[in-house]
Amino acid sequence: xxxxxxxxxxxxxxxxxxxxxxxxxxxxxxxxxxxxxxxxxxxxxxxxxxxxxxxxxxxxxxxxxxxxxxxxxxxxxxxxxxxxxxxxxxxxxxxxxxxxxxxxxxxxxxxxxxxxxxxxxxxxxxxxxxxxxxxxxxxxxxxxxxxxxxxxxxxxxxxxxxxxxxxxxxxxxxxxxxxxxxxxxxxxxxxxxxxxxxxxxxxxxxxxxxxxxxxx
Length: 216
Prior knowledge:
The chain has 2 domains: 20-80, Orthogonal Bundle (Helix Hairpins), CATH 1.10.287; 94-215, minor pseudopilin epsh fold. The chain is 56% helix and 10% strand. It has 7 helices and 3 strands; from the N terminus they run ααααβββααα. The chain has helices spanning 21-50, 56-80, 94-103, 106-117, 166-169, 174-183, 187-215; strands spanning 124-130, 135-141, 153-159. A 3-stranded antiparallel β-sheet has the order 2-1-3.
């Protein structure tokens, strides 16, 4: 069955601090393009599958789908985490405790995450939850589908392709953009994602322990 994805208009942020409406409007058009291309590729692939035509055309479309699909999802995670009027992350938040466990504290995490975001090259800076170690980790992701640590849950996704900031700040504007992005992060939402991921990981561990016990 061929699934059709919809543009998630409820995720579009408004009135952000340091990121203009014009910048968001241009960036949003790129997101809409990813949704369109995912649906188009899925239709083409579905047609080939019905014909059982699994040659070079099928292979190339499948490869391209990874780029378009991850571009769609990462933009949804990016836009969905931006919200006007945000407060700094509180010292007593669960997320803060995880940042202390994983990085030694919020400031240490912030320094590394910001440095990753300002690295030369196009890509994404992403804070992940590692379910096996119950810790957090920062990663650089290049072309949307390349570099994701398998099984990790993305908590905070920052787009650092030039299209994310050039309308406001030009090609040299990434440092200012990174600072503006972090002022608009919906930290309670990030924390809720973390807590859901932790509960899911604990559930998997319990199931594994039960299965191991029964096997003995």
